[in-house]
TrEMBL record:
The lineage of its organism: Bacteria, Bacillati, Bacillota, Bacilli, Bacillales. PANTHER family: UPF0473 PROTEIN CBO2561/CLC_2432, UPF0473 PROTEIN CBO2561_CLC_2432. This is UPF0473 protein ACFSX4_03695. Belongs to the UPF0473 family. InterPro entries: UPF0473. Pfam families: DUF1292.
Length: 100
């Protein structure tokens, strides 16, 4: 039995901190749960580094690990080639679909 992936493409702005402790504003481009990997993923793009007609936005995929109460949590880097391949396929499919 195959499970369906759930997608959330509501845009949201997130403030994260870089390695130097500086605040950086990111736009959430896509969020989804992948049943095969059993993880939640979030695709971010740094706010201000692109416009609506820019085809070459740098997307930053992360694993979203919510805390126990479901509020907040932490983002972890994607580490396996299998996850990178799956994320690339999902992003290409979801970002290429015309909006209704």
């Amino acid at each position: 039995m195959t499970q369906e992936m759930e997608f959330n493409s509501e845009e949201e702005l997130l403030t994260l901190y870089d390695e130097d402790g500086n605040e950086v504003l990111y736009r959430k481009m896509l969020e989804f749960h992948h049943p095969e990997f059993g993880k939640d993923y979030i695709i971010l793009a740094e706010e201000g580094n692109f416009s609506d007609d820019d085809e070459d936005i740098e997307l930053i995929p992360m694993i979203n690990v919510p805390d126990e109460d479901g509020e907040g949590g932490k983002f972890l880097p994607v580490e396996t080639d299998e996850e990178w391949d799956m994320i690339e396929e999902v992003v290409n499919t979801q970002m290429d679909e015309p909006e209704e």
